[in-house]
Design a protein that fits this description.
The protein is α+β, with helices and mostly antiparallel strands. It contains 10 helices and 20 strands. The radius of gyration is 21 Å and the shape is globular.
Length: 403
């Protein structure tokens, strides 16, 4: 794409939320001049394609939050979409396991939240746990009936194909440098030329805050902090140790779900992820270091406050990253028979987690709007599960403006 072209709506980012939004627009307004811009040579190459593929139930989220609302409807929509388009998925349920009496109180709190969010769960003891997951260890668990597995990368690719069939454009290899809001339009500056749009949606994921600065101010009150999640796969001969999804009881102070075991739609069993501060926004290993980003992160007051509050957790995550034995010990709390010899490294993912200036990890979706722009500034897990409903919600607001 060269030169300057005019569109009704441009969406920046070819991940699952961006393409779900484009799909909802293309279905709702078939004649819409619509483009999705993706800097990579394919869609779903970052968060949307680098995750554990879990279809979340909504048990963890505040009852009055966007997450709780959108995940409940999004899960049902995702199952229907997958069934209609032949995308691999399964509602297999999961166990959230209390490995000792000290975790029972938190398990009880999760059970109460499940009730508030209308998530179907059952408290079970060791006997029923052994029937569902014969190799799990624990004193009690919540059996979450509606959790499942799905290939979110495949979902994203199907969405991209659907958008194109409906008349929209999906432009690959198109990196956006800046989004400039003017009175009558928005100019999107890209590596393949500038283009103009009536409305723009920023679904830039790991780079969403950078793209938002020009329109939301030079000193935004939040910043995307990249947390790398490292995974292992269990070797084929030992996959029998895990039938479905096995999770620990989480720390309510953090928006991460802890190291867990999950079977994928391809039959592989993943172990992980941890949550290590990445030294680059796309830092999928320890090797990439973007010193400018590291400097900016250190200067951000929210990051310094976060580090002071959670430095012990951060050290533990680094220790688990560099010492496989520490990683294995956490897995063995759930499934004692897992050993270091059972694990082989798997591709890592990077979570785009927003942190505010007070040092709080934002625990809900964060979507901000100006006259002609919608910025999706915090959409980590369970955004993939909720993506179709997030997309419909954004598309509905855009279509009202276009009217």
């Amino acid at each position: 794409m060269t030169g300057q072209r005019r569109f009704d709506v441009v969406i920046v980012g070819g991940g699952i939320v961006g393409l779900a939004t484009a799909h909802a627009l293309a279905v709702g307004r078939p004649r819409l001049r619509l483009a999705v811009l993706e800097k990579e040579d394919g869609v779903a190459l970052h968060q949307s394609g680098r995750n554990s593929g879990v279809l979340h139930s909504g048990i963890y989220y505040r009852p009055d939050s966007r997450k709780a609302d959108l995940v409940a409807r999004g899960r049902a929509a995702m199952v229907q979409f997958c069934a209609e388009h032949g995308v691999r998925h399964e509602i297999c349920g999961k166990l959230i396991v209390a490995t000792g009496q000290s975790e029972i109180e938190r398990l009880q709190a999760l059970e109460e939240r499940a009730g508030a969010n209308r998530v179907a769960v059952q408290r079970i003891g060791p006997e029923r746990m052994a029937e569902l997951e014969p190799h799990v260890a624990g004193v009690a668990a919540l059996h979450v009936f509606d959790a499942g597995i799905v290939d979110f990368g495949e979902v994203t690719r199907v969405l991209a194909a659907q958008v194109q069939e409906l008349g929209g454009e999906v432009v690959l290899g198109c990196c956006v440098h800046a989004i400039l809001e003017e009175d009558q339009s928005v100019v999107v500056q890209t590596t393949t030329g500038d283009l103009e749009a009536d409305l723009v949606v920023n679904c830039g994921g790991l780079h969403a805050d950078e793209l938002a600065r020009a329109t939301l101010g030079r000193r935004p009150d939040l910043r995307i902090v990249p947390f790398r999640g490292e995974y292992y796969e269990i070797v084929e001969a030992r996959r029998f140790l895990v039938r479905g999804l096995i999770y620990p009881v989480v720390d309510p102070e953090l928006p991460f779900l802890g190291v867990h075991l999950s079977r994928g739609t391809d039959g592989n069993v993943h172990a992980g992820p941890n949550a290590v501060l990445a030294l680059a926004r796309e830092g999928y290993s320890w090797r990439p270091v973007e010193w400018r980003e590291v400097r900016d992160l250190v200067r951000f007051p929210g990051m310094r406050r976060l580090a002071r509050k959670h430095w012990r957790t951060g050290i533990a995550e680094v220790h688990r990253s560099i010492r496989r034995k520490a990683f294995v010990r956490d897995l063995q709390r759930l499934v004692p028979e897992v050993s270091a010899q059972d694990l082989v490294p798997a591709p890592a993912g990077v979570r785009a987690q927003a942190v505010d200036r007070r040092g709080r990890l934002l625990d809900d979706f964060e979507i901000r709007e100006t006259a002609r722009l919608v910025h999706v500034l915090n959409a980590p897990s369970p955004a993939a599960t909720a993506s179709l409903e997030i997309g419909r919600s954004i598309a509905s607001r855009l279509m009202q403006r276009l009217s």
